[in-house]
Amino acid sequence: MFVRFGGCDYRCKMCDSMHAVDPRAVQKHATWMTAAEIASILKQRADETGVKWVTFSGGNPCMHKLDYLVQLLQEMGIYINVETQGTIWQDWLIGCAVITVSPKSMGMGEKFNKERYEIFLRHLRGHRPLCVKVVVFSAADLEFALWVKDITDSIAEEWAPGFVTYYLSLGNPYPPQLNDDLELQDPPILFRANSVDGGVPIETTLADTLLSIYKDLSEEVLLDRRLKDFRFLPQLHVLVYGNETGR
Ligand code: SF4
Description:
Order of helices and strands: EHHEHEEHEHEEEEEHEH
Strand order of the largest sheet: 1-2-3-4-5-6-11
Helix content: 25-40%
Shape: globular
Strand content: 15-25%
Number of helices: 7
Structural class: alpha/beta
Number of strands: 11
Distance between the termini: 11 Å
Bound molecules: iron/sulfur cluster
Radius of gyration: 19 Å
């Protein structure tokens, strides 16, 4: 199950969820719900499907006070995975089963704040399994991922072994954009993408473009022993559904 919260303290140029970031779009699209209403719907879905896990994403869910919602879901036996960029700490995070933190790089078009990330990690004090996920578009982002790992390891060295798992996630260089009506606009199925060698743009599909970048970056990841602790994954939902909203 998946809950997307509106609002974000970042404005990443490559964000694929601007409908949950731009305040005008949030105002237009969001459904305003109490914690009890959200928990009730999730409980109903859990009972119907047997699914016991929910992911909180955004925007940045840490913009919100979710203590009561987390308490309700814990009482219902529903496990929470939360995805955040690690800029804002909330005590309710301790009630989540898994925390996935995804610091944003220059590749995403944002500025990484090392001090805020360190403060976020220090609050964890080894309470939860932590996934660190860095979105990568190019070799420069691989270096950023290594820097993030160094920072994380220096704080996590006092935690239990195996507490942190590192992921690289293939970035989407053609994320959906908000149009003038504040709706996410899919790129066409076939679109013109920049050729890898900087030549004439070629006509291709989003999935083919992403797999081509994935192949090139995978070679770099496999050959660089400094990256041996990272698992490198494409965004499967983008390969399967493209930029379809709601997937
Ligand atoms: S942190 Fe995430 S949700 Fe916020 S702007 Fe960046 S990519 Fe979008």
